[in-house]
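Fold sample X.
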Amino acid sequence: MRYYFLLTLLISILTVSLHAQERQELEFIRSYFKEKEPIVYTDKIDVAEYVYNLFVDICKKDTLRTYKHEARLVLAKHEKDFILAEASKIKEKSFDGNLLKKSTLIPRSKLSEIFKGKINGWQKFTKEYNGGFYSFSKPIFIRNETLCIFYVDYACGNLCGNTEIAVYKKIKDTWTEWFVLYQAVS
């Protein structure tokens, strides 16, 4: 009987912890896109292996810095291990249409269909969706959820887009971009 009680208690604690983490992820994503909505976003990251490798490269260093060295973050080994463990889940993570209320979810499978072997894929996409689309990772929180590392990609044409991995800092219950770890613009 005692064993059953302890097992039930442990499961309850884990369930509450998991829901708190999911709520924190949802709050961060909604706050990130608040000023950008309405948007079109994908359910999954198409280049998950590439994104994971970006996180691996980032975690090779103990100190993360901006290009001009105006901000820096020193990571402990357990933090780097945690970031890599969370980044390895990028392939598995998918978002649903309830994530951003004012926005449109486009399944990755539909995107593949629109762009498959078509030179005019962007024409077809913009005709139907009127602009570009976002892909993003689940936010990775460290230091008691006061820092967040987030990958976001915006595609808007053959030579139009922006990819970024940035560190965000929570200041007075508001997430603020602290510095960019990786950026590619076309």
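Fold sample Y, listed below.
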Amino acid sequence: MIFDFLERGGNFFWWEGLEWGGGGVESWGMSIRMLRCVSLLEGLSYLWLLYCSIYEKRILGKEDAIAVPGMVHGVLFILFCMALFHVWMDRGWGWKKVGFAFVCSLLPFAPFYLERKLKKDEGGRKI
């Protein structure tokens, strides 16, 4: 089976042959919109995780209080990183914009600020 794959000209490196940055103007808005949505959800899950870790675990003493919020936040953070990578490749953002967006995902209320900045950028204005 693996030899058939190789005979057809396949390779094990899935990223070879991908065309980055050629998505056209139509995909620009979609990639920014996806990043805005994931950023907002990731910011809300971060606040939920902080609430569960501070109030429910420390004050109420529930030891398993952060299991579900931690998992949800972890998945949303990975989705945020993937969406940020997509926007970086699609829009050709520089290191400063990507770094700013990534740092915003690490601070509790910064994703809401980032969402507003991305909304302006979605309309064609710079971040």
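Sample Y note: The chain is about 70% helix and 0% strand.
Also: Residues 31 and 86 are 7 Å apart (CA to CA).
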